[in-house]
Description:
Blueprint: H1 3-22, E1 58-59, E2 66-67, H2 69-72, E3 77-81, E4 98-103, E5 109-115, H3 131-139, E6 143-146, H4 151-159, E7 164-166, E8 176-177, E9 187-188, H5 191-200, E10 224-225, E11 228-234, E12 237-244, E13 249-254, E14 257-258, E15 269-270, E16 272-277, E17 280-282, E18 289-291, E19 295-303, E20 306-314, E21 322-324, E22 338-343, E23 348-351
Parallel strand pairs: 3-6, 4-22, 6-7, 16-22
Antiparallel strand pairs: 1-2, 3-5, 4-5, 8-9, 10-20, 11-12, 11-23, 12-13, 13-14, 13-15, 16-19, 17-18, 19-20, 20-21
Amino acid sequence: MNRKHIIIIFALFLLFLTTACSKEKPIEIVEEPTPPIEEPIEEEPIEEEPVVEEPDGIRSPLSGIYADEEIVNGRIMTVVFDNHPAARWQAGLKDAEVVFEFQVEAPYTRYVGLYLINAPESIGPVRSARPYLVEIAQEFDGIFVHVGGSEQAKKDARTYNIAEIDGLTSPASVFWRNSSKKAPNNLYTNMEVLRESAKNKKFRETSEYNGYLFAEEGFTYSGDDASVVEIKYNSTNTTKYEYDEEKEEYIRYKDGKLHIDESDDSSIVAHNIIIQKTTTRVLDNVGRIEVKTIGSGEGVFITKGVALPIKWVKESRDDRTYFYDVDGNEILLSPGVTWIQVINQNSSTNIQ
């Protein structure tokens, strides 16, 4: 092979190499995996703490109801109400925070209403005092509102320096007669004029006393069922309460009739009923009685559909009557109106 042939063969070899190297490699397409679709995560709603609104004012030591501090720190008005059938129905009794029912000359009873945070526009009929009614005013350091009274009651009011507004000695602007009823069962007043009268008499503007204790919301009472409470003072004088479970209050009946307030025909109700058992004795031929209020005795506390036995203790005229459960603890009242039914050895009760 000559030189020329070698050059030609070498040139063909180079051409082959160039052609082979210039061929493109096919592009391999690699598919990227499709990422999974993520479902949106639902966040659980954050439960907000319920906003507990603080009640305005401070709690009344008589009813546990909140009211303006200046009013709660004021002077208690202690009003004697007539409960003779000819006096019914009473006005302003629904606004009392505490009401006592006491026996007087047979077969009647009389009420004593305690007022602190409410100011009814009509109060009455107002009636005369008895010694144990004077004691209620003394017990709560209240201004005693009445019209006359027994000789012993008037003497006690003087002896113990009771602040009093007496219908027999007050001007006609403080007490007036209601023409729809007959005397002596028709003497009326109202809270505005009583407060003004107390101011004119320069009575102290605050009461010094120990108030009641009250249960907090949600407190559970345990005791026997008490949907109906019947109290028989005597054969012609009865008091009855029927429990309204929805409203958690007792509707009051007197001598078989629904007890209403004369001012607006609303029902008289109680959130607490205390039956205080004591003894009485007749003092004179008029039938005036002595009621044992100092010392101790048994009773029943009724609230929110249950009844439980209690003991009452009052150590002196100035001391408040305390009510204790069987374990010796002072009872906790439900906030609201309290009726205290003072009964004697001849009275009977039926709770079911």
